Amino acid sequence: MKKPVSMMFLSAALLISGCQSAYYSAMEKVGYHKRDIMVDRVEAAKESQEEAKEQFNSALEEMQALLNHDGGDLQTAYEKATDEYESARAAADDVTSRINKVEDVAEALFDEWQDEIGQISKASLRRASEGKLRDTRRNYEQLVRTMRRSEARMEPVLTAMKDNMLYLKHNLNAQAIGAIKGEFASLQTDISGLIKEMNRSIDESNKFISTLDSGS
C-alpha cells in the first residue's frame, strides 16, 4: 500500500530535520556551536549576494554588447549573453539556498537559547539572557527581511532577461535586436534597483555579524 503524499512529505521533512539536528550536535562536540555556524552562514549568504551582484552586472554588460553589436558573429555574441544569463540564474539560486540555511540554523539557535533560559535559576541572569535573545532575534528578523527583499528583486529581472533571450533566439537578426532596445533601458533600471537592494542586504549582514561577534 502506498503512503499518502502528505505523509511522504512529512517523513522527508522529519528526516531532513533529524539530519540537521545530528549535524549541529556533532559540530558542538568539537566546539563549534550554533552561534558560530550562524555567523558562517550569514557570511556565506552575504558572499553569495556579492557574487550574484557581479554576475547580474556581467549579464547586463553582455546584453548591452549584444544590442550594440555591429558586424561580426551575431550568434557568438548571443551565446555569450545567454551564458551570462544562465550564470545569473545559478547565482540567484545560490542566494536562495544560502538564505534558507541561515533561517534553518537561526531557528535551531533561538529554540536552544529559549530552552536554556528556562534552566537559569537566578531571575536577574534569566532576564538579561531574555533581553539579549530579544535583541538578537530582532536584528536577525531585520536581516532576513532585507535578504528576502533583495532576493525577490532578482526574479523579475531574470524573467525579463529570459524573455529577451528567447525572443532573440527565435529572431536573431538586427531587426529583432532593434525591437528589444526599448526594453533594455527598463532592464537597466531594474538591475540598478536590484544592486542597491543587494548592497543594503550586504550592509545588514555585516552589521548582524558584528553584533554576534561582539556578543551584544
TrEMBL record:
Keyword Coiled coil: yes
Signal peptide per UniProt: 1-22
Keywords: Coiled coil, Signal
Coiled-coil regions listed in the entry: 35-98
Presence of keyword Transmembrane helix: no
Top-level taxon in the UniProt lineage: Bacteria
Pfam families (alphabetical): DUF2959 (PF11172)
Name of protein: DUF2959 domain-containing protein
Species lineage: Bacteria, Pseudomonadati, Pseudomonadota, Gammaproteobacteria, Alteromonadales
